[in-house]
Each structure stands twice: as C-alpha cells, then as structure tokens.
Design brief:
The chain has 361 residues and is of the alpha/beta class. 36% of the residues lie in helices and 19% in strands. Strand 2, helix 2 and strand 3 form a beta-alpha-beta unit.
Amino acid sequence: MSITRQVTAVAVGLGLVTLTACGSEDGGGSGSAAESKTVTLISHDSWAVSKGVLAAFEKQSGYTVKVLKDGDAGQAVNKAILTKDNPQGDVFFGVDNTLLSRALDNGLFQPYEVKDAGAILPAYRADQDKHRVTPIDTGDICVNYDKAWFSEHKLTPPESLDDLIKPAYKNLLVTENASTSSPGLGFLLGSAAKYGDDGWVDYWTKLKANGVKVVDGWEQAYNEEFSGSAGGKKAKGDRPLVVSYASSPPAEVIFADPKPATAPTGVATGTCFRQVEYAGLLSNAKNGTGGKALLDFLVGKTFQEDMPLNMFVYPVREGAQVPAEFTEFGPQAKDPETMDPAKIAEHRDQWVKAWTSLVLK
C-alpha cells in the first residue's frame, strides 16, 4: 500500500489535510496547549479518507487532524526513522510487512494496544508481545494486464510468475525498483517466496533477459508506462503488464466516466504477494493521547469500511464490509505468496542489494 500504493493516486491528491475541531484535551506530550489540540498523522502519498468520516472523528475526539504525506512508503519510513528523535507527527501510517522490521529495529514506535484489538483478524496481527504496531489494511501486490492489448495481439495474458519469463511476454512487463518502492519490494519478496532463497536469483536473471523494465515507483509504472490504465493511455504507455495491486481494476471502473461494464484491466492471480499495512504511535510523539485516539479510530468499523473506495485496500477488521466493485473486479487472491516478517527482516537488505546488482547494473 506502502504500500506505495497507489491506486488512489488516480483520483486523490490530498497533500496536507487540516480539519478544525471543537473542544480541547490534554495531549499527553510536551507540546503547548495549542499543539495538544492537534494530532498529526504521517503517511505515504496514498493516504485518503472521506472528509465526513474524518470530521466525525474530529468532532467526537476534540482534536484537529493534520495529515502529512512523505512520498512512497519506503521513503516515508526512512524519513521517519531519520527524524524519530524529533518527529514531524504523532502517528505513522503505511509501514507494511516488507518494511516492518526496519521500523521496529530502529525504535520508531512506542507500545499501544488499540481498544478494538480483538476485532482485528488474527491473520494480520503482528508484534503481539509488544503492540508497537496495529494492522490497518491489507492488499495483494500482483501483475495487472491490459485486456485490450492482449485481445488485439491474440495473446493469452500471463497467469503466473513462471509465465512472465516465457518468450511470448518479452518486453511487456514494467515493475518498480525494489530498493525504493513498496510494490517493487513486494514483487521481489513474492518471487523469493515462490522460488526460494537461491532460486529467485535465477528467476530474475531470466526475467531481465526477457526485457523487464524497472522504474522508480508505482506512480510512474502504473500511470505512465502501463498501457491499460487511464493515466497510461494518456501518457502513451507501451507496457501491457505492470506490477500493481489486485484492487487496481476496480479503481479503473470506479473512476472512469462513463463507467465501463467490465474492468479494462485484469490480474494475473498467480503472481500475487500479500501486503499488510500498519500504523503506530511514534516513540517521541508530542501528542501521545491524541495519537492513541487516532489509532483507535483507524481500526474502528467506520474508517475500516471507508478505506476500500479511498485507498483501494481491504479492511483487517472482522465483519467490515467491502464495496461490490471489489468483489466483482478485484477480489483478494485465493493463494497469494506470503513471507514471515522475521524472514523478511533476515534477508531483505541482502536480497535488495543482490537484486540491485543483478537487475539494475
């Protein structure tokens, strides 16, 4: 979403959101009285929420809410670590399972167990002994394909990672840099999960030989290089395969005018890697009390059901409903690749370094 992600960039560019609240409450930090009425969320560029939903939290809690966006998920996490002793905000949203260990090992968060922790689906829980992070959403990083391009060329779209190295798909795929982009890293980890600690190198050697193109981040890959997206069409993108999300096809339907009967893009379901995004209370947050209230809000049913059509991710709260468009055009992968966060922590930096040397040089 990380991550990151994202599909929301099709329609949303909030930048800095400031909402004015009524009332006051002690901030639980060292800031001034004025600062204690403000709680600041730091996020990657794809944060989005309905104004009415955030305003309702603001009215109920008595806080002014600021949202500061700090680029792609990887960039945002790195910046948060560098500024952890004097953070820009109180809560960080958008660290995913590919980057989680980096944030935890660097002491980015302080413990806090949200009030509705028991409502979070067990599959997405992490750091249960210390509660430094809270799961907020989940999504599948997958290869998307341009339906019209494959129909015009009378070529069956790929279905699996194995398919992508076949000669029929030479020079068709664009992906993101694994060292700078959350979906790019997720795609690398998916290949490592599929082919093993050593086998992924052979896979990427073949993928490189088959003409994979690497760009810095999701925005460039999806909205400039990919021929199937609305942005890619305008930019005259010429790659009919892109690493994106299983929820990208619903976005193409929802934001189209007029709306098509079916999504113009599809998902190669055998290429997916499951991503989970977390939020946490920053270790040196000035408004700890407000930060805790905001974290409680993020796992509440109202926000969880608001997320899908704003950030194009799935909720992690049990019983939270998703829009019909998701069920029809962007269902979650039935058997995505996954990897234990501990293994990601052990190998990530080594793998990224090896990937960079292999693919970018």
